[in-house]
């Protein structure tokens, strides 16, 4: 049986952008109140595709997170592991994937009720971790991330069926204008922008260093930027950005001396578990797209 792909992308020619098919907040009118987010925050998330919380975690909590960040950075064995991605042509660490399987503290953090209750309120279901990582973006050496929708990649390369997932980005070192903070296009989550170009096998080996396949065309980006602008939330370590899986985002290289290190947890609904990749390639490794444990996360006490 062949099923039609609702989000065709990575074709040779341009496919026009289409309307979003899924809700952004999955809770219905009665369950919208079941969680920490108030109606104003839910409306803002629906409208813009993200929420920013300045100083969500306390400086005392952040100290522990920073200890784990440094420990991972200095771990020579970890540097050689498959889930560690180095900056293009360099020795500096760009990303470490599967970080919640490496650090006990970050594993617990994925189940912190302050995060989990917000995520479950928005997605209105139980959730599991699809992907986790730290993006280090070291001072002077950290390169940027081209414009993209995470969902576009997760759908085509990982077989994520629908837009029912989101990322929590926890700011580990102050994100300022000069160190390449995350940029988002407000409202872009309401369109699906197919990208041009077939996906090579093992594309991740390139794309995680510098993404070229899965980047929207300039005409589509211009339209969405003219409609929604570009927002660049900045804030101290401990701030939190929660963004919808289809919100277009990217970031510049870090020309400052200060690292811009952010921790990411991607939560997916247990009602949206992975199928075969829609691009037809082999599935990506588990450290990028969890296919082995879809059991619901339970909050830590
Ligand atoms: O390929 C991926 O899954 C990822 N790449 C980017 C640039 N963002 C999200 C995710 O880590
Ligand atoms: Fe991304």
UniProtKB/TrEMBL annotation:
Q: Does the keyword Secreted apply?
A: no
Look up the record and name the cofactor or cofactors this protein needs. Fe(2+)
From what superkingdom does this record's organism come? Bacteria
Q: Which SUPFAM superfamilies match?
A: Clavaminate synthase-like (SSF51197)
Keywords tagged on the record: Dioxygenase, Iron, Metal-binding, Oxidoreductase
Q: Which family does it belong to?
A: Belongs to the PhyH family. EctD subfamily.
This protein's name = Ectoine hydroxylase
Q: Which organism is it from?
A: Hydrocarboniclastica marina
Identify the gene encoding this protein.
Answer: thpD
């Amino acid at each position: 049986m062949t099923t039609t792909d609702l989000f065709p992308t990575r074709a040779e020619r341009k496919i026009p952008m289409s309307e979003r098919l899924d809700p952004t907040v999955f809770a219905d009118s009665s369950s919208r109140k079941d969680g920490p987010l108030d109606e104003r925050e839910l409306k803002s998330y629906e409208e813009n595709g993200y929420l920013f919380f300045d100083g969500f975690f306390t400086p005392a909590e952040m100290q522990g997170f920073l200890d784990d960040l440094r420990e991972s950075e200095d771990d020579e064995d970890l540097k050689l592991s498959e889930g560690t991605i180095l900056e293009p042509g360099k020795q500096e660490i760009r990303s470490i994937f599967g970080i919640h399987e490496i650090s006990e503290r970050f594993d617990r953090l994925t189940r912190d009720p302050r995060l989990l209750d917000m995520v479950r309120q928005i997605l209105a279901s139980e959730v599991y971790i699809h992907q986790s990582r730290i993006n280090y973006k070291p001072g002077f050496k950290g390169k940027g991330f081209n414009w993209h929708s995470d969902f576009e990649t997760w759908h085509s390369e990982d077989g994520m069926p629908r837009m029912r997932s989101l990322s929590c980005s926890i700011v580990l070192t102050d994100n300022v204008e000069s160190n390449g903070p995350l940029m988002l296009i407000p409202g872009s989550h309401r369109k699906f922008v197919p990208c041009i170009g077939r996906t090579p096998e093992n594309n991740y080996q390139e794309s995680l260093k510098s993404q070229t396949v899965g980047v929207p065309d300039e005409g589509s980006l211009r339209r969405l930027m003219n409609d929604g602008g570009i927002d660049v939330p900045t804030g101290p370590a401990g701030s939190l950005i929660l963004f919808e899986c289809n919100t277009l985002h990217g970031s510049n290289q870090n020309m400052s001396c200060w690292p811009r290190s952010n921790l990411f947890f991607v939560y997916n609904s247990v009602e949206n578990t992975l199928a075969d990749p829609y691009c037809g390639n082999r599935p990506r490794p588990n450290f990028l797209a969890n296919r082995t444990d879809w059991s619901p996360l339970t909050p830590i006490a």
